Amino acid sequence: MKLKITNKIALSITLAAIMALAMPLPAMAQDKAPKMNKKERVALRNGNKLYEKKRYAEAEVEYRKALQANPASEKAQFNLATALMRQGSATAKEDDEKNPMKQAEGLLTNLAKSAQDKQLRGKACYDLGNIAYGRQDYGKAVEFYKHALRCNPNDDQARDNLRLAQLKKQQQDQNKDNKDQNKDQNKDQNQDNKDQNKDQNKDQDKNKDQNKQDQNKDQNKDQQNQDQQKQDQQKQQQQQGGMSQQNAEQVLKAMQDRERATQQRINAQQAQQQRYERQRTNKKW
Length: 285
Fold this sequence. Notes:
Layout: H1 7-19, H2 38-52, H3 56-69, H4 74-87, H5 100-114, H6 118-134, H7 138-151, H8 156-239, H9 245-281
Helix pairs in contact: 1-8, 2-3, 2-4, 3-4, 4-5, 5-6, 6-7, 7-8
């Protein structure tokens, strides 16, 4: 049976995972932790008082004083990380160096790996799970909550957040599968449309070429018909013994040219005869 997450449940997830941070550790010495010096103890107490009043920036200053007094203080590191988380944004990007959450994450990561106090390691893992949850990295959040429960099996808040993170991861994976499926369907549909358009364009080009061939064929046929009609007209005129106007004009011009040449030749002969007569008259005997 698949679990569904409603908007109401999603809101409770955000409140539980983001707001329910592990509280600062009290300024008390523990058997497994190194003993505190006076400056460290005073700074931790002052920081915790400011933290309870939600004056997180001032609490951060006191926790840093405790670290100056004892750089190896695991409590000071954890409390400083808690104050920084209150000042930072749980939904900020992981590579945002200006976000106090980034510095808090570094402190908590070191504590989760190397803290001598097992309970403190569990609290560090719990807060790291909250940070991962705020970034919607539900897979990583699940792992951190599991580590927190291994260190603190009685941590009910870590157990509740683990269950909620698992639900969110299940929903996220399902949405991813649906998205991938829709992506594949869209890809197949786009390919089908592309192939269909390609076939349509191919048919259109084929029809275009066929229409062009048919048009050229019709034009050639019309030209052939016109040439045939012209030849038939010329043949009919020849059979009737008729002459076209152009041919008649050409014949008339040729006759005029011949007549003109004949007249010129006659005039030249007459002129030569006249000169001969004049010479003979003027000759002395």
